[in-house]
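Holo prediction. Input below; ligand is flavin mononucleotide.
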Amino acid sequence: MSNKRFQGFIPECCEQFSVRFFILPEFKEVDMFLSLAQSRRSIRKYQSKPVEPEKIDSLVEALLRAPTSRGKNSWEFVVVTDSALLQKLSSAKPHGASFLKNAALGIVVCANPQISDVWIEDASIASTFIHLAAASLGLGSCWIQIRERMHDDTQTAEAFISEILNLPAHIKVVSIVAIGYPDERKSAHPRESLPYDKVSLNNYGVLYSGRS
Ligand SMILES: Cc1cc2nc3c(=O)[nH]c(=O)nc-3n(C[C@H](O)[C@H](O)[C@H](O)COP(=O)(O)O)c2cc1C
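Structure of the complex:
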């Protein structure tokens, strides 16, 4: 089944993951994922309309289905829908976070390093799941990096957020994923622009040329 036909179909028709399976039973899951990966972009401009609670439920379900090392679930999440809180969180760092104030929600992706030594990986995968799940629901989203970022000269972005959300001291903050109905359209990255020179076949430096 051609991806092209499927690609145009996703955003309009699919409200929930389950619906898509029922409408298009003949499509393979791999086609669905590739189509999503091909069309997703980071979206930083949002309409002022809220995201329906059912869609937020779907996002939460998706993030809780993210794989974790040894199934230890080292992550924790704070779903923020309060606009005053979103406004505050949007100043967590001086650059690359301001658009959060216009998002319908933000999901603060946290982790507990006491549970797993690979908490960064666990939380990063969950952040990616949120981003992709949002796209599948017709929502725009963008990762806001928090770990290793500063709020100002003296306070980390993480400490700033911890104060606002009352996070316990042992809980780390990896990212915030801003989510809302898109108010910008971005075209997919063309296949020709993909950095295939980053991919070797069997030996480093022997370029993979399968798609060329
Ligand atoms: C680990 C990571 C951190 C990111 N941090 C930010 C950020 O703090 N602010 C922002 O606006 N975008 C951030 N992004 C989004 C990237 O800028 C974006 O994915 C990249 O420019 C490619 O654009 P695209 O997602 O539309 O393909 C981040 C993405 C990743 C994967």
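The helical segments are 3-13, 17-23, 29-39, 53-64, 83-89, 119-136, 157-165. That is the main takeaway for now.
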